[in-house]
Structure to design on (170 residues):
């Protein structure tokens, strides 16, 4: 009986484990200014900042902000019950210190990251960082040009990321 229970439990975990492989890895965020590593954090996934560009680090230092490498940017990431290709969790906004809902839709080469506060959402494309440490050049351009602000169904271009400006701000 125990063996049957263990088998059912393990089979139940297979879709989650296979789904996690899509999200786990290093992603380039903030127009290539930071890199976020998504990995297992107990029963859920989380994303921590593992690299910051020299320019971004200097800017933070000039403003008197503490170093952000090691900060947990994404937390409580779980497969979405609503969409098979989506993850849900929380995103920490480094600018205002608040936490917002986040929806992640990864593919092999990039991930759509949507941060939301109530009905106001901001979407950005994060390219996956290759093993060499570089995001593919064409994906870096895509990350800059594909950022959208979506409010009440309208869309307009923006260069702010959900981390930099927070949901609802441009």
């Amino acid at each position: 009986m125990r063996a049957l229970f263990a088998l059912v439990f393990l089979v139940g975990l297979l879709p989650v484990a296979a789904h996690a492989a899509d999200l786990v890895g290093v992603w380039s965020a903030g127009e290539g200014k930071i890199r976020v590593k998504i990995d297992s954090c107990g029963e859920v996934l989380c994303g921590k900042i593992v690299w910051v560009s020299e320019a971004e680090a200097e800017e933070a230092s000039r403003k008197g902000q503490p170093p952000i490498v090691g900060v947990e940017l994404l937390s409580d990431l779980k497969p979405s019950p609503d969409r098979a290709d989506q993850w849900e969790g929380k995103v920490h906004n480094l600018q205002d210190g608040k936490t917002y809902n986040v929806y992640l839709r990864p593919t092999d080469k990039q991930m759509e990251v949507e941060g939301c506060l109530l009905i106001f959402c901001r979407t950005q494309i994060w390219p996956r960082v290759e093993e060499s440490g570089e995001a593919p050049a064409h994906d870096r351009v895509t990350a800059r040009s594909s950022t959208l602000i979506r409010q009440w169904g309208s869309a307009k271009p923006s260069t702010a990321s959900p981390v930099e400006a927070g949901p609802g701000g441009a």
Q: What stands out?
A: The chain has one domain: 22-165.
